[in-house]
Amino acid sequence: MTVRAPASVGQKLEEDDTPALVLDLDAFERNLHTLRDAVKGKPVRIRPHAKTSKCPEVAKRQIALGAVGVCCQKVSEAEAMVEGGIGDVLVSNEVVGAQKLARLAGLAKKARIGICVDSAEGLAQLKASGADVDVYVEIEVGMKRCGVPPGKPAVDLARAIIASNLRFSGLQAYHGRAQHLRTLEERHAVIAAAAEAVRTTKDLLKKSGIACPTVTGAGSGTFMFEVQSGAWDEIQPGSYAFMDADYARNEWAAPLPRFEHALFVLTTVMSRPSPTLAVVDAGLKASSVDSGLPGLWQRPGLAYTHASDEHGWVEGAEAPRLGEKLLLVPGHCDPTINLYDWYVCVRRGAVEALWPITARGAGY
Amino acid sequence: MTVRAPASVGQKLEEDDTPALVLDLDAFERNLHTLRDAVKGKPVRIRPHAKTSKCPEVAKRQIALGAVGVCCQKVSEAEAMVEGGIGDVLVSNEVVGAQKLARLAGLAKKARIGICVDSAEGLAQLKASGADVDVYVEIEVGMKRCGVPPGKPAVDLARAIIASNLRFSGLQAYHGRAQHLRTLEERHAVIAAAAEAVRTTKDLLKKSGIACPTVTGAGSGTFMFEVQSGAWDEIQPGSYAFMDADYARNEWAAPLPRFEHALFVLTTVMSRPSPTLAVVDAGLKASSVDSGLPGLWQRPGLAYTHASDEHGWVEGAEAPRLGEKLLLVPGHCDPTINLYDWYVCVRRGAVEALWPITARGAGY
Q1: Which residues of chain B neighbour A361 with C-beta distances below 8 Å?
Q2: Domain B13-22+259-356 adopts which CATH fold?
Q3: What pTM did the predictor assign?
Q4: ipTM of the complex
C-alpha cells in the first residue's frame, strides 16, 4: 500500500507529479551543519528526533555529522529506524502494554534502546517484559504532559528502577510547549525554570548516591538555552532539519542559530476560476493545518487562504495560471511528513534522490 | 512501507494495539442501509465518495447495496479503486497535467472513468491525452472552489467538449461548504440556490440541443435536499458510512436520516500524571484536528482537551487509569482515515476483518 514516488531521479523539480513532499538538500545539509556548529565544543551530544523525519536516510546523515543516534516516540518508529540501520534509539516516551513492551524487548536484542518511565506501574510492566533497555525517568518540567514531578518523586522512581535490577540511565526532561513560545525571552524563562527542575533532581539523586549518566531533552526552538544551562547532556531537536511555517513565526536570534526552510509541498494549480483565485491540488491531506495554513514560498502577493480535503485556495491580485507549480511551506512539519511515503530530494532544481519515509504511519 | 495491522482477526477489541482505526461493522452496515432506504424509489443513483473511505472493501459493500460505482478526487485514488476491483469511477475533480492525464487514459482502458473539466485549457489537455472518459462540466454552485459559472459558460464548455469529439456526460454540481452548515434551514437554503443554478444550466443545455445525461453531486450533510429538488441524478456522499464529531454537530432531522458513529480511534492511557489527567497515545498523527478535537465515546465526564504530535490530553474529575483503552470519535473522518493503513473491523467487541486502506496517501 506504499504509493509510488511522484518523481524519478534526474527529473527536474517542475516535472514532478503533485502533491509531492520536496526536500531541498542544500538547505537540509546546511541546517545539519548549523546545528552541529552551534553546539561544537559544548558538552552535549545530539540525538535528533525521528518523530519528525520518520526516515532512516535522514537519520544516517545526522549521525554522519556527529549525532549519537535518534529519538522516537513510538515502538513502531523505533522498529523502522533499527530496520533502516540505526543502532541507537531512545524512545523518549512511556511505553505501556505487554504487546508494545514485547516488541521493545525484541528490538533491544538488535540495537541499543532506551525508554522512559513515569510510574511504578509502568516500571513493573517493563520489568515483566524482560526488555534489556536503558531506562530514563521522565520528569515534568512545565508542559504538563507525561512525567513525574522533579525532585523526590523522580529519585524514588530511579531507586525503584535500580531495585528492579534495571539500568537507570538518567532523566528525560523535555518542554514541548516552550518550543513555540514566540519571543526568545519567553522561551528562555521557561527553560530556565525547567533547568532548575533538572538541577534539583540531579542534586537529590547525587545526595542519594544515584548516578545520573544522562539528562536528555530540548527541541529546535530552545536547545541553546538547555545547552547554556549546563543541565542537559543530550539534545533532541527534530524540526531544525526541515523548518516549517510555525517555527518561522518564532523570534530567531542568538543564542539560537537560524535554520532554513528545507521542506516544501509541491502543488499544481488545477483550476483558476477567477483572475484572483487559483485552486491547487494540495489540501488537508497534503499539508497538516493544526499549526496554521501553509505559506507560499517566494511568491509575494499570493496567499494560501483556505484548505479543504484535497484543495487549497491561493489568492492574490494576480493568481497563478492553470498548471503552474508552486512550493508551499507546511505549517507543521511533523504531521505533514507523516502524510507521505517519499521525500523527493532536490538539489538545484533536479531530483537527486527519493528517500522512503519508512516510519510514516508508524504510530503504535 | 505499509505498517503491519495493529490487530489480528479473532482478537478482542481491547487486545488490539493502539492507536488503531476501528470500524464498527454493525453501525457501518446500518449506515449503508439507512442511505439506501432514504433514497429508495427516488430517481437517483448512489455513487459514494471514496475520498473518504480510501478502501475498495468499503466500496464493494456500498456497491452490493446498490451503489453504481464510486467517486474519487485524485487519479491515484482511482487507480487504487480499479486495482481493488471497482469498475466505475468518477474523478469528481479537475485533472491537470500530462502525467496525470496519461495515467487517467491508461485507467480508462480497464474501467469506466469519468472526470470533470472547468476550462478550455483543461479540456485541450484532456483531448491531447486521448483518454476515453466520460466528461462532466463542473459548475460552481456556491462554494467558490472549482467550476465554471452556471448557465452560458457551462453550456459553452459542454459544446466545446462535443466539438472535441469527447463524451459530454453531464454536470458536476457539489457544494462542499453546505455540508457543515449547522442548521437544516441553512443547508436547505444553500442547496435550493444550487438547485436553481443546476436547473438554469440544464434548461439552457436543452434549449441548445445538448443532452445532459447526468447531474452528479451532494454530500452526507445535504443529499436529501438535492434528491428532493429533482435536479440531481446521482449523489456522492462519503462520510455517511462513518460519521465524525464534526458532522455530529450538525442538526440532523427529516428529510435527512440520522447516521451512527461507526469510526473510532482506539487509544491507550500511557501516562496518568494526576487523578484528573490521563495522557493517551493518540495525538495529531492519529486523529486529524482540522475540524476540531476528537470526542470521547461513551465516557461522560471525560473530555479530550489537547493534542500534540503523539499525545492526547484526557481530562475529567476521575481520569481513566494507566493502560485503559478508550475510543475516540475523530473530528473529521476523511483526513483521519488517510493516516492509517488498516481498518480494524470489529463486530460485537471482536475483530472480524482487517481491510487495507489501499488509497491511503494516494494524493496525486
Answers
A1: 1, 3, 339-341, 360
A2: Lyase, Ornithine Decarboxylase; Chain A, domain 1 (2.40.37)
A3: 0.97
A4: 0.96
